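2024-03-11 09:14:02 DEBUG pipeline.ingest accepted 1 chain
2024-03-11 09:14:02 DEBUG pipeline.ingest length=124
2024-03-11 09:14:03 DEBUG pipeline.predict start
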Amino acid sequence: MTGQRIYLEKCAACHGRNGNGLEGKFPPLSGVPWVNGSPTRLAALTLDGLTGKRKVDGLEYDGVMPAWRGVLTAPEIAAVLTYLRQTWRNHASAVSTDLVHRVSDRFQERRRFWTSDELQALTR
């Protein structure tokens, strides 16, 4: 399954077909540091979800991003994250299946959503 197809099936309902999000409810994915920054951070966020307040493009969001661990395979997560990082206003490197496996293994015991502060502390 391609990253675009996964995005349209699993992510677009919240983040929009063009990654623009829904102001105040679901953050944009186009041209933002969360997507263009650390692929480790983005993989961890996708695997285990996110909760709590965070700022994106100067606006505050306070909601829950679901965890996709156990729902999407590592190759599917790599494909959708690569799609996000290389479409719209994003120009970041691809995400490998190997990186998703490494992040998944590193945090395999995690049983809760990430917070923004926890994710910001991940450097690699």
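2024-03-11 09:14:41 DEBUG pipeline.report The two ends are 27 Å apart (CA to CA).
2024-03-11 09:14:41 DEBUG pipeline.predict end
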